[in-house]
Specification:
InterPro entries: His_PPase_superfam (IPR029033). By secondary structure, the chain is mostly helical. The chain has four helices and two strands. β1 and β2 form a beta hairpin.
């Protein structure tokens, strides 16, 4: 971290890679827990547009925990392994809902104003069936 003195490392607890060592690898369960903790931290940030740079496996561990009620194509798109140097734009909302089940929201003052649809495909199908 001393190589990058202009960055704020105050919330990084380790100087070295603590999750992948020569003889051990972080468990899937721990990576998922760490992903949720990251989302909770991210949700508390005051910024509205945040760039996240990370490993594709970490993203996959986060996203496989969500999307169970999505259309299969949308679920596959969300949960697939990212390509090398891939850029994805994702809008995330905290509404106290995971796959249709109530769960504690990431923050207590989370807005509940987003209209939920089962998939973008269903939204488009509804638009085609609407009267002119």
């Amino acid at each position: 971290m001393s190589e990058f003195p202009s960055f704020d490392w105050s919330e990084v607890p380790y100087d070295d890679d603590h999750f992948y060592t020569e003889d051990a690898r972080e468990s899937d369960e721990h990576c998922c827990e760490r992903g949720i903790a990251f989302l909770q931290w991210l949700n508390k940030r005051p910024e509205k547009c945040i760039a996240v740079v990370t490993h594709s496996s970490f993203l996959r561990h986060i996203f496989t925990q969500f999307g169970g009620n999505l259309h299969k194509d949308d679920q596959d798109s969300l949960q697939r392994l990212a390509g090398n140097c891939e850029l994805r734009s994702i809008v995330m909302c905290s509404h106290g809902n995971k796959d249709g089940l109530d769960v504690p929201p990431l923050t207590s003052d989370a807005p509940r104003s987003t209209v939920r649809i089962s998939s973008a495909t269903d939204l488009l199908a509804g638009a085609h069936n609407a009267p002119p």
